[in-house]
DNA sequence: GCGACAG
DNA sequence: ATCTTGTCGC
Protein backbone atom coordinates (compact mmCIF):
# COMPACT_ATOMS: atom_id res chain seq x y z
CA UNK A 1 0.00 0.00 0.00
CA UNK A 2 1.17 3.53 -0.65
CA UNK A 3 -0.09 6.40 1.52
CA UNK A 4 -2.22 5.21 4.41
CA UNK A 5 -4.18 8.20 5.71
CA UNK A 6 -4.18 8.60 9.47
CA UNK A 7 -6.64 11.40 9.94
CA UNK A 8 -10.08 12.16 8.63
CA UNK A 9 -8.74 15.10 6.68
CA UNK A 10 -6.07 12.95 5.05
CA UNK A 11 -8.56 10.24 4.19
CA UNK A 12 -10.97 12.70 2.62
CA UNK A 13 -8.09 14.20 0.66
CA UNK A 14 -7.26 10.75 -0.72
CA UNK A 15 -10.85 10.32 -1.85
CA UNK A 16 -10.91 13.73 -3.47
CA UNK A 17 -7.67 12.96 -5.29
CA UNK A 18 -8.84 9.57 -6.61
CA UNK A 19 -12.43 10.49 -7.40
CA UNK A 20 -11.57 12.00 -10.82
CA UNK A 21 -10.15 8.62 -11.83
CA UNK A 22 -13.51 6.90 -11.54
CA UNK A 23 -14.85 5.77 -14.92
CA UNK A 24 -18.54 6.57 -15.12
CA UNK A 25 -18.68 6.10 -18.89
CA UNK A 26 -17.58 2.54 -19.56
CA UNK A 27 -20.60 0.21 -19.71
CA UNK A 28 -18.59 -2.72 -18.45
CA UNK A 29 -18.15 -6.17 -19.95
CA UNK A 30 -21.08 -7.15 -22.20
CA UNK A 31 -20.95 -10.66 -20.87
CA UNK A 32 -19.03 -10.90 -17.61
CA UNK A 33 -17.73 -14.45 -17.44
CA UNK A 34 -16.28 -14.26 -13.96
CA UNK A 35 -17.38 -12.09 -11.05
CA UNK A 36 -15.58 -11.57 -7.77
CA UNK A 37 -17.28 -11.08 -4.42
CA UNK A 38 -15.41 -9.36 -1.58
CA UNK A 39 -16.17 -9.26 2.11
CA UNK A 40 -14.51 -9.15 5.50
CA UNK A 41 -15.21 -10.54 8.97
CA UNK A 42 -13.92 -9.13 12.23
CA UNK A 43 -12.36 -11.01 15.12
CA UNK A 44 -13.83 -10.48 18.58
CA UNK A 45 -11.25 -7.86 19.43
CA UNK A 46 -12.66 -5.76 16.61
CA UNK A 47 -9.15 -5.10 15.39
CA UNK A 48 -8.08 -8.16 13.50
CA UNK A 49 -9.98 -9.14 10.41
CA UNK A 50 -10.09 -11.63 7.58
CA UNK A 51 -10.85 -10.57 4.03
CA UNK A 52 -12.07 -12.94 1.35
CA UNK A 53 -12.34 -12.77 -2.41
CA UNK A 54 -14.39 -15.41 -4.16
CA UNK A 55 -14.54 -15.61 -7.92
CA UNK A 56 -17.65 -17.16 -9.42
CA UNK A 57 -18.48 -18.31 -12.91
CA UNK A 58 -21.30 -15.96 -13.85
CA UNK A 59 -23.26 -18.64 -15.68
CA UNK A 60 -23.14 -21.40 -13.11
CA UNK A 61 -22.50 -19.32 -9.99
CA UNK A 62 -19.91 -21.88 -8.96
CA UNK A 63 -16.66 -20.91 -7.26
CA UNK A 64 -13.70 -20.95 -9.63
CA UNK A 65 -11.13 -19.20 -7.44
CA UNK A 66 -10.82 -17.73 -3.97
CA UNK A 67 -8.36 -16.30 -1.48
CA UNK A 68 -8.21 -15.06 2.11
CA UNK A 69 -5.98 -12.49 3.75
CA UNK A 70 -5.75 -11.43 7.37
CA UNK A 71 -4.83 -8.11 8.85
CA UNK A 72 -5.85 -5.34 11.21
CA UNK A 73 -8.30 -2.50 10.73
CA UNK A 74 -6.44 0.36 9.13
CA UNK A 75 -8.74 3.17 10.23
CA UNK A 76 -11.47 3.92 12.74
CA UNK A 77 -14.96 3.44 11.44
CA UNK A 78 -16.29 6.70 10.09
CA UNK A 79 -19.31 6.76 7.78
CA UNK A 80 -17.97 7.86 4.42
CA UNK A 81 -14.45 6.66 5.21
CA UNK A 82 -15.37 3.05 5.71
CA UNK A 83 -13.14 1.86 2.88
CA UNK A 84 -9.95 2.75 4.70
CA UNK A 85 -10.67 0.14 7.35
CA UNK A 86 -10.71 -2.85 5.05
CA UNK A 87 -8.90 -1.74 1.92
CA UNK A 88 -5.38 -2.97 2.72
CA UNK A 89 -6.52 -6.46 3.66
CA UNK A 90 -8.96 -6.66 0.76
CA UNK A 91 -6.15 -5.73 -1.63
CA UNK A 92 -3.97 -8.43 -0.06
CA UNK A 93 -6.69 -10.98 -0.73
CA UNK A 94 -7.09 -9.73 -4.31
CA UNK A 95 -3.36 -10.21 -4.83
CA UNK A 96 -3.78 -13.85 -3.94
CA UNK A 97 -6.31 -14.90 -6.53
CA UNK A 98 -4.93 -16.24 -9.78
CA UNK A 99 -7.93 -15.20 -11.85
CA UNK A 100 -8.64 -11.74 -13.23
CA UNK A 101 -12.35 -11.26 -12.53
CA UNK A 102 -14.42 -9.30 -15.04
CA UNK A 103 -16.22 -7.42 -12.30
CA UNK A 104 -15.71 -6.76 -8.59
CA UNK A 105 -18.88 -6.88 -6.49
CA UNK A 106 -18.23 -4.96 -3.28
CA UNK A 107 -19.98 -5.09 0.06
CA UNK A 108 -20.75 -1.39 0.38
CA UNK A 109 -21.47 1.55 -1.91
CA UNK A 110 -19.88 2.97 -5.04
CA UNK A 111 -20.79 6.55 -5.94
CA UNK A 112 -23.77 6.48 -3.59
CA UNK A 113 -21.47 8.22 -1.17
CA UNK A 114 -21.13 11.75 0.29
CA UNK A 115 -18.13 12.50 -1.93
CA UNK A 116 -19.11 10.01 -4.64
CA UNK A 117 -16.22 7.73 -3.76
CA UNK A 118 -17.30 4.72 -1.76
CA UNK A 119 -15.49 1.40 -1.32
CA UNK A 120 -16.49 0.10 -4.75
CA UNK A 121 -15.02 3.17 -6.47
CA UNK A 122 -11.86 2.90 -4.42
CA UNK A 123 -11.34 -0.77 -5.25
CA UNK A 124 -12.21 -0.19 -8.88
CA UNK A 125 -9.76 2.65 -9.33
CA UNK A 126 -6.94 0.90 -7.48
CA UNK A 127 -7.33 -2.38 -9.36
CA UNK A 128 -8.40 -0.93 -12.67
CA UNK A 129 -11.24 -3.46 -12.75
CA UNK A 130 -14.92 -2.73 -13.33
CA UNK A 131 -16.56 -2.60 -9.90
CA UNK A 132 -20.02 -2.16 -8.43
CA UNK A 133 -21.28 -1.61 -4.92
CA UNK A 134 -24.11 -3.53 -3.29
CA UNK A 135 -25.11 -2.13 0.08
CA UNK A 136 -27.57 -3.56 2.56
CA UNK A 137 -28.51 -0.16 3.97
CA UNK A 138 -28.31 3.32 2.47
CA UNK A 139 -25.60 5.87 3.24
CA UNK A 140 -26.89 8.81 1.24
CA UNK A 141 -29.90 9.58 -0.91
CA UNK A 142 -33.65 9.33 -0.78
CA UNK A 143 -35.85 6.76 -2.49
CA UNK A 144 -39.29 5.27 -2.74
CA UNK A 145 -39.80 1.61 -1.92
CA UNK A 146 -39.71 -0.48 -5.09
CA UNK A 147 -42.70 -2.68 -6.01
CA UNK A 148 -42.91 -5.97 -4.16
CA UNK A 149 -41.72 -8.12 -7.05
CA UNK A 150 -38.15 -9.27 -7.55
CA UNK A 151 -36.52 -7.12 -10.20
CA UNK A 152 -38.49 -4.01 -9.28
CA UNK A 153 -36.41 -0.93 -8.55
CA UNK A 154 -36.52 2.79 -7.84
CA UNK A 155 -33.84 5.44 -8.23
CA UNK A 156 -31.62 6.42 -5.33
CA UNK A 157 -31.36 10.17 -5.50
CA UNK A 158 -28.97 12.43 -3.62
CA UNK A 159 -29.66 16.10 -4.21
CA UNK A 160 -30.13 16.39 -7.96
CA UNK A 161 -28.16 13.28 -8.87
CA UNK A 162 -29.20 9.69 -9.35
CA UNK A 163 -26.46 7.87 -7.48
CA UNK A 164 -27.81 4.35 -7.63
CA UNK A 165 -30.86 2.11 -7.50
CA UNK A 166 -32.86 0.43 -4.82
CA UNK A 167 -33.29 -3.08 -6.17
CA UNK A 168 -35.63 -5.83 -5.02
CA UNK A 169 -33.78 -9.12 -5.41
CA UNK A 170 -36.52 -11.22 -3.78
CA UNK A 171 -40.29 -10.80 -3.68
CA UNK A 172 -41.34 -8.84 -0.63
CA UNK A 173 -37.86 -8.80 0.86
CA UNK A 174 -35.94 -5.69 1.88
CA UNK A 175 -34.17 -4.33 -1.22
CA UNK A 176 -30.44 -3.77 -1.75
CA UNK A 177 -28.72 -0.56 -2.78
CA UNK A 178 -26.78 -0.83 -6.02
CA UNK A 179 -24.39 1.82 -7.27
CA UNK A 180 -21.63 2.15 -9.83
CA UNK A 181 -18.12 1.71 -8.58
CA UNK A 182 -15.94 1.96 -11.67
CA UNK A 183 -16.23 1.24 -15.36
CA UNK A 184 -19.72 -0.19 -15.40
CA UNK A 185 -23.08 1.37 -16.24
CA UNK A 186 -25.79 1.37 -13.57
CA UNK A 187 -28.17 -0.58 -15.80
CA UNK A 188 -25.64 -3.36 -16.27
CA UNK A 189 -24.72 -3.31 -12.62
CA UNK A 190 -28.33 -3.91 -11.63
CA UNK A 191 -28.80 -6.67 -14.20
CA UNK A 192 -25.70 -8.37 -12.88
CA UNK A 193 -26.90 -8.14 -9.30
CA UNK A 194 -30.15 -9.84 -10.24
CA UNK A 195 -28.26 -12.55 -12.10
CA UNK A 196 -26.13 -13.10 -9.02
CA UNK A 197 -29.14 -13.23 -6.68
CA UNK A 198 -31.38 -16.00 -8.02
CA UNK A 199 -32.37 -17.24 -4.59
CA UNK A 200 -31.30 -14.95 -1.78
CA UNK A 201 -31.41 -11.23 -1.08
CA UNK A 202 -27.67 -10.77 -1.39
CA UNK A 203 -25.63 -11.72 -4.46
CA UNK A 204 -24.01 -15.16 -4.37
CA UNK A 205 -20.68 -13.40 -4.67
CA UNK A 206 -20.96 -11.61 -1.36
CA UNK A 207 -22.63 -14.60 0.28
CA UNK A 208 -19.74 -16.85 -0.67
CA UNK A 209 -17.16 -14.27 0.34
CA UNK A 210 -18.91 -13.78 3.67
CA UNK A 211 -18.90 -17.51 4.24
CA UNK A 212 -15.22 -17.80 3.46
CA UNK A 213 -13.90 -15.01 5.66
CA UNK A 214 -16.06 -16.17 8.58
CA UNK A 215 -14.76 -19.69 8.15
CA UNK A 216 -11.23 -18.29 8.17
CA UNK A 217 -11.84 -16.67 11.54
CA UNK A 218 -13.27 -19.86 13.02
CA UNK A 219 -10.35 -21.82 11.63
CA UNK A 220 -8.11 -19.57 13.68
CA UNK A 221 -6.39 -18.14 10.64
CA UNK A 222 -6.37 -14.94 12.63
CA UNK A 223 -4.21 -15.64 15.68
CA UNK A 224 -2.34 -13.65 18.29
CA UNK A 225 -0.30 -10.68 17.16
CA UNK A 226 -2.03 -10.86 13.73
C1' DG B 1 -27.95 23.03 17.45
C1' DC B 2 -29.88 18.12 16.34
C1' DG B 3 -30.06 13.90 14.08
C1' DA B 4 -28.14 10.64 10.43
C1' DC B 5 -24.45 7.89 9.42
C1' DA B 6 -21.86 1.74 4.08
C1' DG B 7 -19.49 -2.22 7.47
C1' DA C 1 -19.08 -5.27 11.89
C1' DT C 2 -20.81 -7.91 16.23
C1' DC C 3 -23.88 -9.05 20.37
C1' DT C 4 -28.63 -12.32 20.35
C1' DT C 5 -34.63 -15.50 21.10
C1' DG C 6 -38.33 -16.00 19.39
C1' DT C 7 -41.30 -15.74 15.64
C1' DC C 8 -43.80 -15.27 11.17
C1' DG C 9 -44.25 -17.53 6.69
C1' DC C 10 -43.50 -20.82 2.78
Short description:
Keywords: Cytoplasm, DNA damage, DNA repair, Endonuclease, Hydrolase, Magnesium, Metal-binding, Nuclease. With 226 residues, the chain is α+β, with helices and mostly antiparallel strands.
Strand and helix layout:
Layout: H1 8-18, E1 34-42, E2 48-57, E3 63-72, H2 83-95, E4 103-107, H3 119-127, E5 131-135, E6 153-158, E7 161-167, E8 176-182, H4 186-196, H5 204-218
Parallel strand pairs: 1-4, 4-5
Antiparallel strand pairs: 1-2, 2-3, 5-8, 6-7, 7-8
The structure holds 2 DNA strands.
Supply the key terms.
DNA-binding, eight-stranded mixed sheet, archaeoglobus fulgidus dsm 4304 fold, alpha+beta, 226 residues
Structure notes:
This protein has 226 residues and is of the alpha+beta class. The protein has one domain: archaeoglobus fulgidus dsm 4304 fold (2-Layer Sandwich). Helices cover 26% and strands 26% of the residues. The chain is built from 5 helices and 8 strands. It has an 8-stranded mixed beta sheet, sandwiched between helices. Strand 4, helix 3 and strand 5 form a beta-alpha-beta unit. The longest helix is centred in the last third of the chain and has 15 residues. The radius of gyration is 16 Å and the shape is globular. It starts with 7 loop residues before the first helix and ends in an 8-residue tail after the last helix. The mean pLDDT is 95. It binds 2 DNA strands through strand 1 and helix 2.
State the end-to-end distance: 18 Å
Overall helicity: 25-40%
* Class from secondary-structure proportions: alpha+beta
The geometry reads as globular
| Unreliable residue stretches | none
CATH architecture classification name = 2-Layer Sandwich
Amino acid sequence: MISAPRTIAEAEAVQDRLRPLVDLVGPGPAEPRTVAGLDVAYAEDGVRLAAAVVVLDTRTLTVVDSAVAVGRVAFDYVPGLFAFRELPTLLDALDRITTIPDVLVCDGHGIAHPRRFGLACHLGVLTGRPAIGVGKTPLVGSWEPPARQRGAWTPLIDGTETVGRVVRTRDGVKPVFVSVGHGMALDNACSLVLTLSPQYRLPETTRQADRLCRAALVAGVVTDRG
